[in-house]
Write a structure and sequence with these properties.
The protein is an alpha/beta fold. The protein is 34% helix and 24% strand. The strands form 3 sheets. The chain has a 10-stranded mixed beta sheet, with helices on both faces. It has a 7-stranded mixed beta sheet with strand order 20-19-18-21-17-16-22, sandwiched between helices.
Length: 485
């Protein structure tokens, strides 16, 4: 996507948009924007074809949801918002332009909502949703009441967006389509940079150049945060510091500005010691496991410290961090089998998540139900994705989710399953959605951990897996054995 075609950030406010209609409003990014606009008191409608869980909350806030895509949905509308997932020939998009309505990309509408706020923008190949959630909770704990839009919902809070009264606006900045170049942050936090979205960028060097461009958009009165442990983040910090920009780093590296040590991760959570410029900050604890969770939280601690917020607020917020939906989310237990859902689809994040789930499984087995996300990624990173899936004891693989992509001969999950380094009887490619719960019920034993992982639709399967396992138990013992949460 060429960002030059977009309206520069800061020339519009959300109130300038009038009556707003969002195409594909149930998607994770669009639903967050819709919730933000609704909590701001603006008139919002949207269209969808599937009853996503987020739609009920939008209706409760006064949003109008059309469960069709048709021209009449635009009657009385002033501004139409679309995402990069919406094709340019979508009938509502075509009709909006025919009527001469204002048409904005999601990033443009979000930038309008940020006008007049100090934007804290979190970008990176992995961990940005979790990190955005952590930064948000730290600011909330400090009493800052930030506005925020996150690419997921903070578990137990049930919201991925809010219009706050404070001066800060925390946002997850998406690099996949270059739309993060629309924003003008006061703080830019970049968790890591790895090869991904090469359908947009072509190669890693071009991707790294885009992250550098994003960081250079940071207000000179603000600052940039990167990870000293990540090669891409380290290169970025060196480049920007050479240009005289204010860059602060975090990590286990000896030269990190905020340095972690003594990291301990278990099924009960993760804890570590932190110091900044050699001065101890204390011990930080999270109730969610994974060394990578500790690293993400350190970026939130550093950001809060640099914003002048109390370190105690960061400590308290992280100690109660409930996690993010679709990020290591516990769905329930049925017939002695624990079911989780996890968004990871890039091999690095998959590896981190599966290693953490190994800690949770203990003596049990780890069964992965994976739906790859995008044909180009599955093709280009097939060996790396296969290696990550090899961490599992059992694999149930669905077909690639790649809306709008054309499948070439030999592409897709049939080729991927062959590359996974597991014995043939411990991996299976299922041709339909309904076959996956059947396979899990056949394979899983009490004490096992099952995780649904990958593309957005797979998040809807957890309840079906629990139902299949409970039905199995009911058939064996004449009753149901499922519990949620």
């Amino acid at each position: 996507m060429n960002t030059a075609q977009f309206t520069p950030a800061g020339t519009l406010t959300a109130e300038d948009l009038g009556r707003i209609h969002l195409i594909g409003v149930g998607g994770v990014g669009m639903s967050g924007l819709a919730r933000l606009l609704l909590t701001r008191g603006l008139p919002v409608s949207g269209s969808e074809l599937r009853e996503w869980p987020s739609l009920a909350g939008m209706r409760a806030l006064g949003g109008t949801i059309h469960m069709t895509h048709e021209a009449a949905n635009l009657d009385g509308v002033d501004t139409v918002v679309y995402s990069s997932a919406i094709p340019q020939d979508h009938l509502e998009l075509v009709e909006a332009r025919r009527r001469g309505l204002r048409v904005l990309h999601r990033s443009e509408a979000l930038a309008a909502a940020m006008t007049g706020r100090l934007t804290v923008a979190i970008a990176g190949t992995h961990g940005k949703t979790t990190t955005t959630s952590m930064v948000t909770m730290v600011l909330q704990q400090a009493g800052a009441d930030p506005s925020f839009v996150i690419g997921g919902e903070i578990s137990e809070v049930g919201s991925g967006a809010h219009h706050g009264t404070g001066e800060h606006f925390v946002v997850e900045a998406d690099e996949s389509d270059r739309s993060f170049l629309i924003y003008r942050p006061y703080v830019s936090l970049i968790t890591n940079i790895e090869a991904d979205h090469l359908n947009t960028y072509g190669d890693l060097a071009t991707l790294e150049a885009a992250f550098a461009e994003f960081a250079r958009l940071t207000d000179r009165r603000g600052f940039i945060v990167t990870c000293a442990d990540d090669p891409g983040g380290r290169r970025l910090a060196q480049t920007l510091r050479a240009e005289g920009r204010q860059v602060h780093t975090y990590g286990e590296a000896a030269d990190a500005d905020l340095r972690l040590s003594g990291i301990v991760s278990s099924a009960q959570g993760v804890r570590y010691l932190a110091e900044i410029d050699g001065r101890p900050l204390g011990e930080f604890r999270l109730p969610v496991p994974g060394r990578h969770m500790g690293l993400n939280s350190a970026s939130a601690v550093l950001t809060a410290y640099l914003l002048g917020l109390p370190v105690e607020a960061a400590e308290a917020a992280l100690a109660t961090f409930p996690g993010v939906r679709r990020r290591f989310e516990r769905k329930g237990v049925a017939d002695g089998v624990l079911v989780y859902d996890e968004y990871a689809y890039h091999p690095t994040s998959m590896t981190l998540a599966l290693r953490t789930l190994r800690e949770v499984a203990g003596d049990g087995r780890l069964i992965v139900v994976f739906q790859p996300y995008r044909l180009y990624r599955t093709r280009d990173l097939q060996a790396e994705i296969a290696a990550a899936l090899g961490i599992a004891d059992e694999l149930v693989l669905l077909e690639v989710f790649g809306p709008g992509e054309l499948r070439q001969p030999g592409e897709g999950s049939a080729a991927l399953v062959e590359a996974v380094p597991l014995p043939a009887d411990r991996k299976v490619f299922v041709g339909s959605w309904d076959d996956a719960p059947v396979e899990v019920a056949r394979r899983a034993r009490p004490g096992d951990v099952v995780v649904t992982m990958g593309a957005p639709p797979i998040s809807l399967m957890g309840d079906e897996l629990l139902a299949a396992l409970a039905a199995r138990a009911g058939n064996a013992a004449g009753g149901s054995a499922a519990t949620a949460g």
